[in-house]
Amino acid sequence: MNYWHNEVIAEQRREEIKEELEHIRLEEEALTARPHQPGWYDRRMFNLGNWMIARGKQLRRRYDSQSADSGQTFHGSLVR
Predict the structure, then answer these.
(1) Per-residue DSSP letters for 25-42?
(2) I need a surface site. Which of 11, 18, 38, 80 has the fewest CB within 10 A?
């Protein structure tokens, strides 16, 4: 058997894992060094998302309550 071949492959993989861990550590260090400060676009998109969620909840509340409370059924040509 070629045990040396298995050892060489295992050592290469260990080195790759070490390099990847070092890369991850450096990324985490960079993120903690300078916290994210949202810019104009980020703030506007965040506010737009919040507005859309709030309006969606209000519209859903308004139209769901009417359809649940009405109890009327429409037939034939009345449905448009």
Answers:
(1) HHHHHHHHHS-----HHH
(2) 80
Rounded Cα distance, 15 and 75, in Å: 73
Q: Which residue has the tokens 């260090």?
A: 29
pTM of full prediction above 0.70? no
CA angle (32, 36, 40) in 5-degree steps:
170
What tokens were used for 63?
């139209």
Check: CB of residue 9 under 8 Å from CB of residue 1: no
Domain ranges of the chain: 3-63
* Cβ atoms within 10 Å of 56's Cβ, excluding its own: 10
